[in-house]
Structure formats: structure tokens, C-alpha cells
Amino acid sequence: MINNYDDILQWVEENDIMILDRGFRDSLGVLKSLCIDVAMPSFFGPKQNQSDVQDANNSRFVTILRWVVESVNARIKRFKWFNQVIPNSSLPSVQDFICIVAALPNCFHVSMVTPSPNDDETIRRMNSLRTQNNTLQISLTDYNLTRNSICNVIDVHNLVQRFPELLMVDLRMITLGVYQLKKARSYAEEHADSIDLTDPNLEFPIRSCTDTNAHDIIRIRFQSAHKKSSQYYTYIQFDPKQILAWYCTCRSGPRVVGCCSHVAAGIWFLGFERHQLETNQQPSSINFANLHYCDSISDYEDSSDEDNDARYSSTS
């Protein structure tokens, strides 16, 4: 871009924003020197273990917009030859191979994105939430509600107020995408130590806040999917009709534009799955694999909320 090969800078117009992943972090200086605005997921600062709510919200917008790029890459890599390191001797033929690989799905595969009647409502909801703070996180901090001494183990049937029963469309309006719902089953099964999530005798450990002004808050401790020594506390605030707020101690847990996979798992099980007559008892890995490549489902995110415990920091 610095040398303007093939007049590449003519592709960029005033007020354009380049939406990039963190792999371009070392190029930020170059792009800014060319007066190009850039949007990419936020970086962690020194000793920072969690994004603040605004960074988490903005990062969610970036991953949503970048999903179509990642989805195309995933579809191409389903061809074995492209899912490996390509030898230099094959580079002259890569363009021809890409044309062939791209033509096959375009001709014979389902559309990558299927419009949904709820898409406009999803966009409206995301825009309305983008600048909002996490009210539950603020309450937990201001009133010191994270103390173990005020969180007692309780059976879900004995909550002070009933957990709301939700429809799948309600869940989608909370998660604002399907990635977290794909992960929900595996987190719930691990937490309950069972694959039969509709068993009436199933134990799904939760804690209820005993503080006078916080009976509508529960806490669930989820094991990290990537690191055995890490656990995350998920807090959910609700009334009998709806989910009011959520917060998790994982890296993207404060965001209110959608939610992390841990929050989704808790809400999905308590508000939806345990009310179903039968459950899908195939292994979680198979269940996730079947959903992971459902290109016809409009998805928005491609990476884990925990980012595989990788740390990202800016070099600029």
C-alpha cells in the first residue's frame, strides 16, 4: 500500500474504515500514516485480564462484520489441499485453484448467508446497546455482591423467583448470533456432568445471591474450555418474564452487545433446554461439528470468547 501497487489506494475513499483482525496489528502505523481509519478487536493492556465494556462491545461489532471473510476462508479450507501449508512450487497455480474452489460451492452449495426476518431487529438492538454500560457489573462492584458468603447453593426449582422460560428467538436476541448457542451445550454438559440435560433429577449447580436487594441474581461457575486451572463466574439477573442483565468474569464477559458463551450456556439451559421433552444425546464434539459448518445459518462470530487464552497487545 505504501508504494501504491496497482493503484490500490484508489480503492479507498474518504471516511472508509478498514475492518481487520488482530493479525494486522503491526500494520496500524502504516495505515494511519495513509490516513486510513481502522477497526479491529481491542488489545489487552499490561496486566489487563478482561476487556472493559466499551472495548468488548466494539470488538463484537468488528467480529460481526468480519464474519463473512472468515466464513469464506473456512469454506475454502474444507478442501483438503487448501487446509495445509501450500508449497512454494504451487504458488503460480493458486489463483486458478481458488477460482475452481470458489466456483464449486457457488454452483452446488447453499447460500452462505440466509436473510432472516429478524435481521433488522438484530441490527437495531445492537446499535442501541453499543454505548451502554453493563449495569449488572456495576451493581456487583458497587454493592460487593461477588462475595462467596452471600452466594448459597440452591436448586433451580427453589429460586425466590422463577427463571423465565424462553424461546429460541429470545435466545437469539440475547446472544445476537449463533456461535454462543453452538457452544452452550458443551458448557452445560460439562457443568452438569451429564449429556441428558432434560433429566428431571439432573444437578446443575447454581448459587443464589442472598443479599436483600439481589434475590434476582444467580451465579454459575463454569470451567474454562481451554485451561483447566481457569474458571469463570457467570452472573445472570432476571425476573419471571425476561433476562434483565448478565456479566461474566471471562475476557469478553462485560459486553452487552450479545453475550459470551458462558452466559449463553447458563441462559440456554435454565430458560430453554431443561424444558424440552427430549435432548440431543450425541457427544458434544459431534453436535458442535454438525453446527460449525452450517453455512446456511446466519452467524456472526468465528472465535472463542476466551481466545484460547492468547494475549494480544499492541506493538505501536
UniProtKB/TrEMBL annotation:
Q: SWIM-type domain: which residues?
A: 232-271
**Its Gene Ontology molecular function terms?**
zinc ion binding
- Which PROSITE patterns is this protein grouped with? ZF_SWIM
Q: Which UniProt key words apply to this protein?
A: Metal-binding, Zinc, Zinc-finger
- Answer whether the UniProt record assigns the keyword Zinc to this protein: yes
User: Which cofactors, by name?
Assistant: a divalent metal cation
Q: Which InterPro entries match?
A: HARBI1_dom, Znf_SWIM
In terms of domain of life, where is this protein from? Eukaryota
The name under which this protein is listed is SWIM-type domain-containing protein
Taxonomic classification: Eukaryota, Metazoa, Spiralia, Gnathifera, Rotifera
